[in-house]
Amino acid sequence: MKITVYEVRPDEKEYLCQAAEQYGVELKLVRGTMTQENISEADGADGIAILGETKLGANLVEEVARRGIRVVATRTIGYDHIDLNAAKSNGVHICNGYYDPDGVAEYTVMLMLMALRNYKQALFRANANDYSLGGLMGKELRNLTVGIVGTGKIGQKVAQKLNGFGCELLAYSRRQNADTSTGIRYCTLEELYAKSDIISLHVPLSNQTRYMIDRAAIGQMKDGVILINCARGELMCVEDIIWGIETMKIGALGLDVIEDEEGIYHRDRRSDIIKNRNMAYIRQFPNVTMTQHMAFYTKEAVKSMAESGIVNIVRCLEGVENPNMIC
């Protein structure tokens, strides 16, 4: 069996090779994203593994199918960069990656605590030898209500970790599948917005969830609400959350993702002109903490993601049941 892997990062190469050896797979590793110009690198392959920067649109899917390649596995959990309708109509199977939810859940809680304790400003001051306390008074999580939007694997894990802090936990999800022993109580989205001091997003990006946090949604929330997003940037309308910060309706933001981050995050852009005005503007607020889409980035997760790119293709081609099969 032959697999061509695109977007190979140095931190995952070892794990890709280990998985290939374990499953008897012949690998071809390509550093760049898959495009019309380099898809010939996959000629003769039984499957292709990609990451999120490869935009697998209809034309590229057709090229994959024309070459007789039956499976594309993204090593990411999200798969909004893939045209699933085109994949289905061309007989190309799509699988998504997997990793344990603990890393993202821990990172989510970290952003909550950083927002509550004004850590961004404390860090900036300390770097300039300013150790004053004015404006840095925080709040204690145990006295607050946290709303979790989406109780999939990551949302449930966030609830488990927050349970130990003693805060009240509200949740809204299409599937009410969380373990109630975590202290979680399901409610309507409107109630969650109205009662939560902190709101954390853990839903996939879809036509239904795109811009779910807009000016109307923010208007339903408490004054001074803290919003956390470690899921997908496009869940939030960035212009509307800027409005929320400027009007002080939003008390703080913890963002690991942001709209139009493609081509910026995960790259060294120190010497470049970055064409994303909203991103440049929002990051300067003292109550906005932004990181570069790294909540997932642990040794354990990278290993699992790399392995998934190999294992999912093998399972699909061998006809083995695969919970990560999307279509």
Please supply descriptive tags for the structure shown above.
327 residues, single chain, 11 helices, Rossmann fold, 2 domains, alpha/beta
Question: Your description of this structure?
Answer:
- The chain is an alpha/beta fold.
- It has two domains: 2-99 and 299-317, Rossmann fold (3-Layer(aba) Sandwich), CATH 3.40.50.720; 102-290, Rossmann fold, CATH 3.40.50.
- It is built from eleven helices and twelve strands.
- The chain has helices at 10-23, 58-66, 84-89, 102-116, 119-127, 153-163, 189-195, 215-219, 238-246, 277-282, 299-317; strands spanning 2-5, 26-29, 47-50, 71-74, 93-95, 145-149, 168-172, 184-186, 198-201, 225-229, 250-255, 288-290.
- It has a seven-stranded parallel sheet with strand order 8-7-6-9-10-11-12, sandwiched between helices. A five-stranded parallel sheet has the order 2-1-3-4-5.
- The longest helix is centred in the C-terminal third of the chain and has 19 residues, at 299-317.
- It is globular, with a radius of gyration of 21 Å.
- The mean pLDDT is 95.
